[in-house]
Amino acid sequence: MTMQRLWFTQARLDGGWAKDVRITLSRGMIQGVETGVAAAAGDERHDIAIPGLCNVHSHGFQRGMAGLSERRGRPDDDFWSWREVMYRFLDRMTPDDIAAITALAYTEMLESGYTRVGEFHYLHNDVSGDRYADPAETAGSIVSAAAETGIGLTLLPVFYAHADFGGAPSAPGQRRFISDIDGFARLMEASRAKLRDGDVIGIAPHSLRAVTPEELAAILPLAAGGPVHIHAAEQTKEVDACLAWSGARPVEWLLDNAGVDERWCLIHATHIDDAEVMGLAASGAVAGLCPVTEANLGDGVFPAEAYLRLDGRIGTGTDSNILVDAAGELRMIEYSQRLHCRRRNILGSEAEASVGERLFGGALAGGAQALGVKCGLTAGMPADIVALSACHPSLAARKSDMILDSWIFAGGAGCVDTVWAGGVRQVQNGRHIARDAAEVRYAAALERLIA
Fold first, then answer.
1. pLDDT tens track for 194-217
2. Residue 121 falls in the annotated catalytic set
3. pTM confidence score
């Protein structure tokens, strides 16, 4: 059995920061952690170790349209007009295109400090809206992209049946998403067969707009104990429509009717009132926050201060992959609160004064919960490790929590030196080992799609 020994000057362990740390890896797992030990012959030496983060919400193919929707189309441009641009972009996309675009997104995730991704995968059908002969053809594209880049994968096939609340017929632009219950069951079975060792599968009822209560009840058993992710309350228009349909707000309806618990991740949950904040925090579910995308789409600001005060659980996601940066997502959570409240250091607390530590620790635990895995730099955990460079100016002379504060608020992806996912080095000197090949395939796909 081959062992790897990594030695770090500092490491954020489950019990806090430690100096002179040796982490022993074998078969993709952490076998042991020693602290206060001198580096020895055979140790591979690095600066600062932190656990890899989980990206709870990604639409990999949307990386290809990043920057293409930043032109004013009408005076009231909003999420709904952006969605029409997205529908047009995916109209001719092949499974190979999906794999190529997603692989670049996953490369960038690893380079920024994400070591596992939750792929909220809804592009199931061919360009005519028919199922491929293999119902998991495009799910295979996602698994291929994960295998090419080495990122851990939690695949979340999406059930999408309707255009709006109450079972409204789907729109033409949604034809590549649409499933019925029997077809979705076949899709889940075929998708499971494509997973690698260590991959996880859950389900993703797209939203209460796209799924009726009866359909939601029918598909939940297909999760088989795995994660359940759903978009909820991203837009005020969605909240108003849900009230008109049911008399309840989206998160309120889910809490009252869907059995929301620790398996669930409610993506965005942006527009929630005080009662929903309390209910969501008490449920044990994770709020999947994607603040960079939420800012890009003009969604609004999640009430993070009130939610975290109640020990609510959070994870971060890159959603549309407009800009992939793990530290940037954490930073934007805090900055959105500052802009809204006109105060500083809002998400620090009496128990944890470091805003960076509170955000990182919350996203680390909540992200792993949301993706159905365990995490941390301790024996028995997956060897998902991010090495930050102490030579980066933003980390000069930093120790302990100052490291996370400086990485998140001053350094970003440029601080990331080396990344191991499942014990395999995928990023070295800040660059993914397969980036060159990923860029070539990505560029070829985009040339064809944009032409």
1. 999 999 999 999 999 999 999 999
2. no
3. 0.97
